[in-house]
Amino acid sequence: MSPERSPDQRPNRPSYHHPVVIDPAARAPVGGTGADGRGGGERGGGDRGGGDTGPSGKAGDAAAGGGQPATPRTNWVKRLTTLVTALVLLGLVVLAVRHVARDFRPAEVWAYVQLLPWARVAQAAGLVAGAYMVMTLYDVSALKYLGIKLPYRTVGLGSFAGYAISNNVGFAVISGGSVRYRVYSVAGLSAADIAKIVVFSTTTFTLGITFTGALGVAIGPEVGAGLLNVPAWLLQGVAGLVLAGLGAMTVAAAVTHKPMRLWRWSVALPSSGVMLSQIVIASLEILLSAAALWTLLPAESGVGFMEFTALFCAGLAIAIVSHVPGGLGVFETILLLGLRDHGPAGGAIGALLAYRFLYYVLPLVLAGLLLLVWEIRADHGPVAAWRRWRARRGR
Is residue 139 packed enough to be buried (19+ CB in 10 Å), middle (13-18) or exposed (0-12)? Predict the structure, then answer.
Protein backbone atom coordinates (compact mmCIF):
# COMPACT_ATOMS: atom_id res chain seq x y z
CA MET A 1 0.00 0.00 0.00
CA SER A 2 2.67 2.42 -1.07
CA PRO A 3 1.71 6.08 -1.45
CA GLU A 4 1.59 7.87 -4.79
CA ARG A 5 4.03 10.57 -5.67
CA SER A 6 2.87 14.15 -5.89
CA PRO A 7 1.93 15.09 -9.47
CA ASP A 8 3.72 17.91 -11.22
CA GLN A 9 0.41 19.61 -11.79
CA ARG A 10 -2.66 19.45 -9.65
CA PRO A 11 -5.62 17.78 -11.38
CA ASN A 12 -8.04 19.94 -13.29
CA ARG A 13 -11.12 20.78 -11.28
CA PRO A 14 -14.38 21.57 -13.07
CA SER A 15 -16.76 24.18 -11.80
CA TYR A 16 -19.14 22.70 -9.26
CA HIS A 17 -21.93 23.71 -6.95
CA HIS A 18 -21.28 24.20 -3.27
CA PRO A 19 -21.97 21.41 -0.77
CA VAL A 20 -24.50 22.02 1.95
CA VAL A 21 -22.78 24.19 4.55
CA ILE A 22 -24.54 26.01 7.35
CA ASP A 23 -22.52 29.00 8.47
CA PRO A 24 -24.17 31.13 11.19
CA ALA A 25 -21.61 33.87 10.59
CA ALA A 26 -22.29 34.10 6.86
CA ARG A 27 -23.50 37.53 5.76
CA ALA A 28 -22.07 37.91 2.26
CA PRO A 29 -23.16 36.12 -0.93
CA VAL A 30 -21.54 32.83 -1.77
CA GLY A 31 -18.17 33.36 -3.36
CA GLY A 32 -16.52 35.29 -0.54
CA THR A 33 -13.41 34.03 1.15
CA GLY A 34 -14.24 31.16 3.50
CA ALA A 35 -12.69 30.24 6.81
CA ASP A 36 -9.64 28.05 6.65
CA GLY A 37 -10.71 24.50 7.37
CA ARG A 38 -11.10 24.59 11.15
CA GLY A 39 -13.83 23.06 13.23
CA GLY A 40 -14.77 20.18 15.45
CA GLY A 41 -16.71 17.02 15.35
CA GLU A 42 -16.51 13.48 14.16
CA ARG A 43 -18.85 10.97 12.62
CA GLY A 44 -20.63 14.05 11.59
CA GLY A 45 -19.35 16.65 14.03
CA GLY A 46 -19.33 20.21 12.67
CA ASP A 47 -16.19 20.22 10.54
CA ARG A 48 -15.71 23.36 8.51
CA GLY A 49 -13.70 23.60 5.34
CA GLY A 50 -12.01 26.51 3.69
CA GLY A 51 -11.55 27.00 0.00
CA ASP A 52 -8.90 28.26 -2.34
CA THR A 53 -9.63 29.94 -5.65
CA GLY A 54 -10.65 27.32 -8.17
CA PRO A 55 -10.93 27.47 -11.93
CA SER A 56 -14.43 28.83 -11.62
CA GLY A 57 -12.91 32.04 -10.30
CA LYS A 58 -14.61 31.84 -6.92
CA ALA A 59 -12.83 31.63 -3.63
CA GLY A 60 -14.17 29.57 -0.77
CA ASP A 61 -15.62 26.75 -2.85
CA ALA A 62 -16.60 24.77 0.22
CA ALA A 63 -17.79 27.63 2.38
CA ALA A 64 -21.11 29.35 2.33
CA GLY A 65 -20.74 33.07 2.59
CA GLY A 66 -17.93 35.39 3.48
CA GLY A 67 -18.62 36.04 7.15
CA GLN A 68 -17.18 38.67 9.46
CA PRO A 69 -14.33 38.29 11.93
CA ALA A 70 -15.48 36.94 15.26
CA THR A 71 -15.45 39.54 18.04
CA PRO A 72 -14.16 38.78 21.57
CA ARG A 73 -17.77 38.94 22.80
CA THR A 74 -18.87 36.39 20.19
CA ASN A 75 -16.03 34.05 21.15
CA TRP A 76 -16.91 34.41 24.84
CA VAL A 77 -20.58 33.61 24.18
CA LYS A 78 -19.62 30.54 22.13
CA ARG A 79 -17.31 29.26 24.86
CA LEU A 80 -19.97 29.82 27.52
CA THR A 81 -22.63 28.11 25.43
CA THR A 82 -20.38 25.11 24.81
CA LEU A 83 -19.51 24.85 28.52
CA VAL A 84 -23.14 25.09 29.64
CA THR A 85 -24.22 22.52 27.06
CA ALA A 86 -21.48 20.11 28.15
CA LEU A 87 -22.38 20.55 31.85
CA VAL A 88 -26.09 20.03 31.21
CA LEU A 89 -25.40 16.89 29.18
CA LEU A 90 -23.01 15.64 31.86
CA GLY A 91 -25.66 16.16 34.53
CA LEU A 92 -28.26 14.33 32.48
CA VAL A 93 -25.85 11.47 31.86
CA VAL A 94 -25.07 11.18 35.59
CA LEU A 95 -28.78 11.03 36.42
CA ALA A 96 -29.37 8.51 33.66
CA VAL A 97 -26.47 6.33 34.81
CA ARG A 98 -27.83 6.34 38.37
CA HIS A 99 -31.20 5.23 37.00
CA VAL A 100 -29.70 2.49 34.84
CA ALA A 101 -27.21 1.35 37.52
CA ARG A 102 -30.05 0.17 39.75
CA ASP A 103 -30.47 -2.85 37.46
CA PHE A 104 -26.77 -3.31 36.73
CA ARG A 105 -25.16 -6.58 37.81
CA PRO A 106 -21.58 -7.13 36.53
CA ALA A 107 -21.88 -10.90 36.73
CA GLU A 108 -24.95 -10.83 34.50
CA VAL A 109 -23.13 -8.67 31.94
CA TRP A 110 -20.07 -10.92 31.84
CA ALA A 111 -22.24 -14.04 31.57
CA TYR A 112 -24.09 -12.55 28.58
CA VAL A 113 -20.85 -11.68 26.79
CA GLN A 114 -19.47 -15.17 27.34
CA LEU A 115 -22.65 -16.82 26.07
CA LEU A 116 -22.95 -14.72 22.90
CA PRO A 117 -23.08 -17.16 19.96
CA TRP A 118 -20.07 -16.90 17.69
CA ALA A 119 -22.39 -16.81 14.67
CA ARG A 120 -23.98 -13.59 15.92
CA VAL A 121 -20.60 -12.09 16.73
CA ALA A 122 -19.34 -12.95 13.24
CA GLN A 123 -22.50 -11.47 11.71
CA ALA A 124 -22.03 -8.26 13.70
CA ALA A 125 -18.36 -8.10 12.70
CA GLY A 126 -19.33 -8.46 9.04
CA LEU A 127 -21.85 -5.63 9.37
CA VAL A 128 -19.21 -3.43 11.02
CA ALA A 129 -16.77 -4.19 8.19
CA GLY A 130 -19.48 -3.26 5.68
CA ALA A 131 -20.18 -0.02 7.53
CA TYR A 132 -16.52 1.00 7.39
CA MET A 133 -16.32 0.11 3.70
CA VAL A 134 -19.33 2.32 3.00
CA MET A 135 -17.74 5.01 5.17
CA THR A 136 -14.84 5.24 2.72
CA LEU A 137 -17.39 6.31 0.09
CA TYR A 138 -17.75 9.60 2.01
CA ASP A 139 -14.29 10.58 0.81
CA VAL A 140 -14.72 8.90 -2.58
CA SER A 141 -17.85 10.93 -3.32
CA ALA A 142 -16.20 14.11 -1.99
CA LEU A 143 -13.21 13.67 -4.31
CA LYS A 144 -15.49 12.93 -7.26
CA TYR A 145 -17.51 16.05 -6.44
CA LEU A 146 -14.33 18.13 -6.34
CA GLY A 147 -13.04 16.65 -9.60
CA ILE A 148 -9.97 15.04 -8.02
CA LYS A 149 -8.86 11.53 -8.99
CA LEU A 150 -7.01 9.31 -6.53
CA PRO A 151 -6.59 5.51 -6.44
CA TYR A 152 -9.06 3.81 -4.13
CA ARG A 153 -6.23 2.25 -2.10
CA THR A 154 -5.11 5.75 -1.14
CA VAL A 155 -8.62 6.99 -0.41
CA GLY A 156 -9.48 3.79 1.44
CA LEU A 157 -6.45 4.08 3.70
CA GLY A 158 -6.93 7.78 4.44
CA SER A 159 -10.66 7.58 5.10
CA PHE A 160 -10.69 4.28 7.00
CA ALA A 161 -7.77 5.21 9.23
CA GLY A 162 -9.13 8.72 9.73
CA TYR A 163 -12.56 7.51 10.81
CA ALA A 164 -11.24 4.62 12.92
CA ILE A 165 -8.97 6.97 14.88
CA SER A 166 -11.37 9.90 15.17
CA ASN A 167 -14.24 7.60 16.21
CA ASN A 168 -12.19 6.68 19.28
CA VAL A 169 -10.32 9.91 19.98
CA GLY A 170 -12.92 12.48 18.92
CA PHE A 171 -11.99 15.96 17.69
CA ALA A 172 -12.11 14.76 14.10
CA VAL A 173 -10.55 17.86 12.55
CA ILE A 174 -7.41 17.27 14.63
CA SER A 175 -7.32 13.47 14.70
CA GLY A 176 -9.03 12.27 11.53
CA GLY A 177 -8.04 15.42 9.65
CA SER A 178 -4.38 14.88 10.52
CA VAL A 179 -4.50 11.30 9.24
CA ARG A 180 -6.09 12.44 5.98
CA TYR A 181 -3.52 15.18 5.57
CA ARG A 182 -0.67 12.71 6.13
CA VAL A 183 -2.00 10.33 3.45
CA TYR A 184 -3.62 12.69 0.94
CA SER A 185 -0.91 15.34 0.94
CA VAL A 186 1.57 12.74 -0.30
CA ALA A 187 -0.78 12.14 -3.24
CA GLY A 188 -0.67 15.84 -4.14
CA LEU A 189 -3.69 17.30 -2.35
CA SER A 190 -3.45 20.67 -0.64
CA ALA A 191 -4.71 21.56 2.83
CA ALA A 192 -7.65 23.39 1.20
CA ASP A 193 -8.57 20.27 -0.78
CA ILE A 194 -8.54 18.16 2.38
CA ALA A 195 -10.64 20.74 4.22
CA LYS A 196 -13.24 20.49 1.45
CA ILE A 197 -13.27 16.71 1.79
CA VAL A 198 -13.88 17.06 5.52
CA VAL A 199 -16.77 19.50 5.13
CA PHE A 200 -18.36 17.42 2.35
CA SER A 201 -18.09 14.23 4.43
CA THR A 202 -19.54 16.01 7.46
CA THR A 203 -22.46 17.22 5.36
CA THR A 204 -23.00 13.70 4.02
CA PHE A 205 -23.22 12.24 7.52
CA THR A 206 -25.51 15.04 8.73
CA LEU A 207 -27.96 14.42 5.89
CA GLY A 208 -27.81 10.67 6.44
CA ILE A 209 -28.40 10.68 10.19
CA THR A 210 -31.23 13.19 9.78
CA PHE A 211 -32.97 11.08 7.13
CA THR A 212 -32.37 7.72 8.83
CA GLY A 213 -33.36 8.95 12.29
CA ALA A 214 -36.54 10.60 11.01
CA LEU A 215 -37.45 7.53 8.96
CA GLY A 216 -36.90 5.28 11.96
CA VAL A 217 -39.13 7.46 14.15
CA ALA A 218 -41.83 7.60 11.47
CA ILE A 219 -41.91 3.80 11.16
CA GLY A 220 -41.30 2.85 14.80
CA PRO A 221 -41.94 5.69 17.26
CA GLU A 222 -42.64 3.50 20.31
CA VAL A 223 -39.12 3.46 21.81
CA GLY A 224 -38.65 7.20 21.37
CA ALA A 225 -42.12 7.94 22.73
CA GLY A 226 -41.41 5.86 25.82
CA LEU A 227 -38.03 7.51 26.33
CA LEU A 228 -39.39 11.06 26.02
CA ASN A 229 -42.81 10.28 27.55
CA VAL A 230 -44.67 11.90 24.64
CA PRO A 231 -47.39 10.53 22.34
CA ALA A 232 -46.14 8.42 19.45
CA TRP A 233 -48.18 10.43 16.94
CA LEU A 234 -46.36 13.60 17.99
CA LEU A 235 -42.94 12.07 17.21
CA GLN A 236 -44.27 10.75 13.91
CA GLY A 237 -45.48 14.23 13.02
CA VAL A 238 -42.09 15.77 13.77
CA ALA A 239 -40.38 13.02 11.77
CA GLY A 240 -42.73 13.69 8.87
CA LEU A 241 -41.87 17.38 8.92
CA VAL A 242 -38.14 16.57 8.91
CA LEU A 243 -38.53 14.21 5.97
CA ALA A 244 -40.63 16.80 4.15
CA GLY A 245 -37.92 19.39 4.79
CA LEU A 246 -35.26 17.12 3.30
CA GLY A 247 -37.50 16.52 0.30
CA ALA A 248 -38.01 20.26 -0.13
CA MET A 249 -34.25 20.83 0.00
CA THR A 250 -33.74 18.18 -2.68
CA VAL A 251 -36.37 19.78 -4.91
CA ALA A 252 -34.87 23.22 -4.31
CA ALA A 253 -31.44 21.89 -5.27
CA ALA A 254 -32.91 20.63 -8.54
CA VAL A 255 -34.52 23.92 -9.55
CA THR A 256 -32.13 26.56 -8.20
CA HIS A 257 -28.43 26.99 -7.68
CA LYS A 258 -28.74 29.96 -5.36
CA PRO A 259 -28.00 29.56 -1.64
CA MET A 260 -30.96 29.40 0.72
CA ARG A 261 -31.04 32.15 3.36
CA LEU A 262 -32.54 31.47 6.78
CA TRP A 263 -32.08 34.54 8.98
CA ARG A 264 -28.29 34.65 9.61
CA TRP A 265 -27.70 31.20 8.14
CA SER A 266 -26.71 30.57 4.53
CA VAL A 267 -27.28 27.09 3.09
CA ALA A 268 -25.63 26.49 -0.29
CA LEU A 269 -27.11 23.48 -2.05
CA PRO A 270 -25.41 21.00 -4.38
CA SER A 271 -27.28 19.37 -7.23
CA SER A 272 -30.20 17.12 -6.31
CA GLY A 273 -28.26 14.08 -7.55
CA VAL A 274 -25.32 14.84 -5.27
CA MET A 275 -27.64 15.40 -2.31
CA LEU A 276 -29.46 12.12 -2.92
CA SER A 277 -26.16 10.24 -3.18
CA GLN A 278 -25.05 11.79 0.11
CA ILE A 279 -28.25 10.65 1.82
CA VAL A 280 -28.00 7.12 0.37
CA ILE A 281 -24.33 6.62 1.34
CA ALA A 282 -24.67 7.92 4.89
CA SER A 283 -28.00 6.15 5.49
CA LEU A 284 -26.53 2.83 4.37
CA GLU A 285 -23.54 3.27 6.66
CA ILE A 286 -25.74 4.14 9.65
CA LEU A 287 -28.13 1.24 8.96
CA LEU A 288 -25.21 -1.22 8.82
CA SER A 289 -23.78 0.15 12.09
CA ALA A 290 -27.16 -0.02 13.79
CA ALA A 291 -27.74 -3.55 12.48
CA ALA A 292 -24.44 -4.68 14.00
CA LEU A 293 -25.53 -3.60 17.48
CA TRP A 294 -29.11 -4.80 16.98
CA THR A 295 -27.75 -8.26 16.10
CA LEU A 296 -25.92 -8.42 19.45
CA LEU A 297 -28.95 -7.48 21.57
CA PRO A 298 -30.71 -10.16 23.66
CA ALA A 299 -33.37 -12.01 21.70
CA GLU A 300 -35.94 -11.20 24.39
CA SER A 301 -35.54 -7.44 23.86
CA GLY A 302 -38.20 -7.63 21.16
CA VAL A 303 -37.41 -4.17 19.75
CA GLY A 304 -37.97 -3.72 16.01
CA PHE A 305 -35.05 -2.75 13.79
CA MET A 306 -36.37 0.61 12.58
CA GLU A 307 -37.43 1.80 16.04
CA PHE A 308 -34.02 0.70 17.32
CA THR A 309 -32.39 2.61 14.44
CA ALA A 310 -34.17 5.78 15.56
CA LEU A 311 -32.81 5.27 19.09
CA PHE A 312 -29.36 4.52 17.65
CA CYS A 313 -29.37 7.80 15.69
CA ALA A 314 -30.44 9.72 18.81
CA GLY A 315 -27.56 8.19 20.75
CA LEU A 316 -25.10 9.11 18.00
CA ALA A 317 -26.35 12.69 17.79
CA ILE A 318 -26.22 13.30 21.55
CA ALA A 319 -22.77 11.67 21.78
CA ILE A 320 -21.51 14.01 19.06
CA VAL A 321 -22.92 17.09 20.79
CA SER A 322 -21.33 16.02 24.09
CA HIS A 323 -17.82 16.09 22.52
CA VAL A 324 -16.88 13.07 24.65
CA PRO A 325 -14.21 11.05 22.80
CA GLY A 326 -15.95 8.18 21.08
CA GLY A 327 -19.19 9.17 22.84
CA LEU A 328 -18.01 6.83 25.61
CA GLY A 329 -20.72 6.49 28.22
CA VAL A 330 -23.05 9.00 26.57
CA PHE A 331 -24.02 6.78 23.65
CA GLU A 332 -24.44 3.75 25.90
CA THR A 333 -26.59 5.66 28.38
CA ILE A 334 -29.05 6.83 25.72
CA LEU A 335 -29.34 3.29 24.36
CA LEU A 336 -29.85 1.79 27.83
CA LEU A 337 -32.53 4.32 28.70
CA GLY A 338 -34.38 3.57 25.49
CA LEU A 339 -34.12 -0.19 26.05
CA ARG A 340 -34.93 -0.21 29.78
CA ASP A 341 -38.38 -1.72 29.13
CA HIS A 342 -37.06 -4.30 26.67
CA GLY A 343 -35.37 -6.92 28.80
CA PRO A 344 -32.71 -6.97 31.54
CA ALA A 345 -30.06 -4.26 31.55
CA GLY A 346 -27.25 -6.82 31.85
CA GLY A 347 -27.88 -8.22 28.38
CA ALA A 348 -28.07 -4.77 26.79
CA ILE A 349 -24.84 -3.68 28.49
CA GLY A 350 -23.12 -6.88 27.34
CA ALA A 351 -24.23 -6.22 23.78
CA LEU A 352 -22.94 -2.64 23.98
CA LEU A 353 -19.57 -3.84 25.28
CA ALA A 354 -19.25 -6.36 22.43
CA TYR A 355 -20.25 -3.66 19.94
CA ARG A 356 -17.76 -1.18 21.39
CA PHE A 357 -15.00 -3.78 20.87
CA LEU A 358 -16.05 -4.66 17.31
CA TYR A 359 -16.82 -1.14 16.10
CA TYR A 360 -14.20 0.92 17.93
CA VAL A 361 -11.29 -1.17 19.26
CA LEU A 362 -10.69 -3.58 16.37
CA PRO A 363 -10.80 -0.90 13.61
CA LEU A 364 -8.46 1.28 15.68
CA VAL A 365 -5.91 -1.53 15.95
CA LEU A 366 -6.23 -2.35 12.24
CA ALA A 367 -5.87 1.33 11.26
CA GLY A 368 -2.72 1.61 13.36
CA LEU A 369 -1.20 -1.46 11.71
CA LEU A 370 -2.09 -0.24 8.21
CA LEU A 371 -0.57 3.19 8.86
CA LEU A 372 2.56 1.56 10.30
CA VAL A 373 3.00 -0.62 7.20
CA TRP A 374 2.33 2.40 4.97
CA GLU A 375 4.97 4.47 6.75
CA ILE A 376 7.53 1.64 6.62
CA ARG A 377 7.03 1.09 2.88
CA ALA A 378 6.90 4.79 2.02
CA ASP A 379 9.88 6.67 0.55
CA HIS A 380 9.14 9.72 2.68
CA GLY A 381 8.53 10.53 6.31
CA PRO A 382 10.50 9.63 9.46
CA VAL A 383 11.05 5.94 8.59
CA ALA A 384 12.38 6.80 5.14
CA ALA A 385 14.59 9.52 6.65
CA TRP A 386 16.00 6.98 9.11
CA ARG A 387 16.73 4.54 6.27
CA ARG A 388 18.55 7.27 4.31
CA TRP A 389 20.53 8.20 7.41
CA ARG A 390 21.56 4.56 7.92
CA ALA A 391 22.56 4.32 4.26
CA ARG A 392 24.77 7.40 4.54
CA ARG A 393 26.35 6.02 7.70
CA GLY A 394 27.09 2.77 5.92
CA ARG A 395 29.07 4.41 3.13
Answer: buried
